[in-house]
Amino acid sequence: MRKAALLFFLLIILTTITLTTATAKCPEGWTCPGEESKSTCPVCPVCQPPSIPNIVPEEPIRPENTDYVHPEYIMYADELHNNSENYLIVDVRPSDKYNVSHIPNAINIPWYELRNLSKAAEILGNHGVSNDAKIVVYSDSCKECGGMCVAAYVFWLLKYLGHENVSLLDGGIEAWSKLYNTTSKPLTLPPKKFNASVKQELFADVNWVEKHLNDPNVQIIDARTKEEYDSGHIPNAINIDYNSLMRRENRLKGADVLNYLFTGKGIDKNKEILVYCKSGLRSSYMFFALSTMGYKVRNYVGGWEDWIKYHPTAKLEIGINLSAKKVYQGQPVEVYARVRYDLPLKASFCPSCGSDLVNIPAMVSKPKDYDVKAYVKDGDSIKAIAVLQDNDKDGIFTGTIQTFALSPGNYTVEVVAKKDGLKATAKTTLSVVIDNIPPKIENVSVMPKTVHFGQRIKIIATIVDVSHVKAHAIIKNENGEVGRVYLANRGGKYIGYWYAIVDEGDYAIDIFATDSNGNNAKLENAAKIHVSGMNKLSSYKNYNVGGILLGISDRHILFL
């Protein structure tokens, strides 16, 4: 009775499930087994969800937090579009780009025309810029052309010349063109008078930097990459790569993120900040970001190029070469790196040579040993490392990359040299392919060539290949194979031993080799030997040991 009730209960459950699934439909966009079009089908655990395309969403016009101390320094595309008649829009890209496409009603002043600070005010006026204009500057995302930094340089320049009402278009012309139309119609304005009121507190030259190197109230920011910073920088400088200031699509990060970045690097709002890069462009974007956040900033527009004219520093340079750019898997690759370490030069008085100033090597601390390594990379992943040594002390460091563990494909070989706190890198490419070339067998010899019955023969073969090889020798006569010997690798020589327990006569030796990729090689009749009869043995007796007949002489044990 109890079993019948249980069966009845299970029957009800199965019926309910069947009725439910029979009327159910797959969720919108899902695919179920047996589903055709949008017909009904069972909803089951193996239904596949709809595929979601891997699309990177567009960056929003504004970041989540725009609580900058000076939000007026940054302009957004929609804001400019709605109030464009109130602004003088300045495209600072080269003229050829401006002539192809630009924001409507924008004038063109290529940024490089304003590099001469003494003539910048005159050039601005000639292009129709006046002191009462509300200016918006923009460039594009082409980093090879300067990117957003060239617009930031003109932003800094206008501030330096005393023009307060200036802002930078966030994201450049790309941010505009995503939303609005551009034009190729040029616009020129009649010349106007631009009166400069220079603010020296926004500018620094080499003399100012030297004077404030150890000033506790001044902090120095190097806006270059870490690699550039590591290769040499102004003393006490803090490295903040200007790229870290931007979110996607070359837009300035939010106020909260910038605050976290600057305070995390120890940048103090109560101190004066000096920014520099190589030649004043990237430092201008750093100036823009710091100014937006309310820091007091100077721009050393001469940058590192200007600094090293007056403060030559030690340089570490490196060049690399490989023994081969394309190798078979398992083939070793030799790396050659020429590392040059130049000591700085400085001025010194030389009364004996009749000159007040001569260049002599500057005194430096005792140099440390070189650290030179080669890294084989697949993207950012390191697949192999080789340590390079300069054993001959000739400035050329060598090492070997092993490729057994490298899968076929293309790799980047990056050599990194370090010395005295300096770092230099150089890169090249390496291709690893599967070996389709069989081993090469050569220089086969036997010792001795004429032997007595039972005497041991040494077989030697040179086998050339880039991967592991297994080899063996076959001894044969006119009737076929009489013996087979494994050849062991001994430093490139493959060696095996065979006991001539055969009938008297002439024999030939074939050599076979197979590499790790399955390529085979064969060298027939590679060597010949002659075996003489047993009567050549000095004394010979038969012994039966465990059912095995042995022939023992004064020098040999023979299996008969």
- Cα gyration radius (Å): 40 Å
Q: What percent of residues are in strands?
A: 35-45%
Strand order in the largest sheet: 22-24-27-26-25-28-29-23
- Low-confidence runs of at least 5 consecutive residues: 16-25, 35-43, 346-367, 535-560
Extended strand count = 32
Task: Describe what you observe in this structure.
- Helix 5 packs across helix 10.
- The chain is built from eleven helices and 32 strands.
- The longest helix has 22 residues.
- The C terminus is likely disordered.
- The strands form eight sheets. Strands 22-24-27-26-25-28-29-23 form an eight-stranded mixed sheet, with no helix packed on it.
- With 560 residues, it is an alpha/beta fold.
